[in-house]
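User: My instructor asked us to take a sequence, write out its structure as tokens, and then describe one feature of it. I'm not sure where to start. Here is the sequence I was given:
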Amino acid sequence: MTEVTAAGKRIVANIEKVVVGKRPEILLALVAYFAEGHILLEDVPGVAKTMLARALARSVGATFKRVQCTPDLLPSDVTGASIFNPKTTQFEFRQGPIFAQIVLADEINRATPRTQSALLEAMAERSVSADGTTYDLTPPFLLIATQNPVDHEGTFPLPEAQLDRFLVRLNLGYPSAEEEASMLGRLQLRHPIDDLQAVVTAEEVLQCQQAVRLVRVDDKLCRYVVDLIRRTRAHPDVLLGGSPRASLALHRASQAVAAVRGQDFVTPDDVKRMAPAVLSHRIILKPESRLRKVTARSVIEEVLDAAVVPMGGARVMA
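Assistant: Let's start with the prediction itself. The structure tokens for your sequence are:
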């Protein structure tokens, strides 16, 4: 796992040249990438959601495309379309931006449900179907989506089925006063992202993703993950708890965070560390619970406190 840790440190250090004071969120985004998952960045405008996505893409030697989502964006604008070539008198498929290795869907909730669904197959199957033909996407494929939860005018909320496709949902929040002052100094002459160079190749990312799959998870920890998910389904404030896909997501995310930390085995702390980011967008609260200001994150915290943590040394459990 030393190669995974080394690659992770290079990427995090590179992103921190652009995004100030957000190391925990950067690490979570990196974990999702190494776990072969997708990332949803949700927060108010101006807190570097798009900049984090661009910095991650620039740090990796992979192809990158950005899609600015608007209500008039069509599915073919994302996936591509067949264009008639008068020279050959045949239709030729022109690939859309979804065929890049890293795709940024900016303000995804401004796209119509029809266009949002065009992303669903790419996120789940790593492929695109157009004109009766299925095209495989070039690995490692990552979709980073941003959305603004404050301005609801002209937006189309993501359905639960599509939210469930994102491995993690992150909230960046405002920087501290010192961090914001440091940011002003960095941006005085030019933006640091203009000089950002790739520090990891796409092939190295693929190797890291394959290494994550080899991280050992004890049977006790597998049952611990399943217990957490089942407790979300039985929680009195929850209308719909985590699905089996949530169990798989938490399992893989725990493997990835262990690998980034240089471990070849998963500990209960790794599961606890990833549970809020992986599960908070996968549960639906009851309407009366939302009126009482109950949040998904508080429910996850209660579930973590109530679940019995597997005992024994990490090496023994591994």
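For the description part of your assignment, you could build on this observation: The radius of gyration is 20 Å. Try explaining in your own words what that tells you about the chain.
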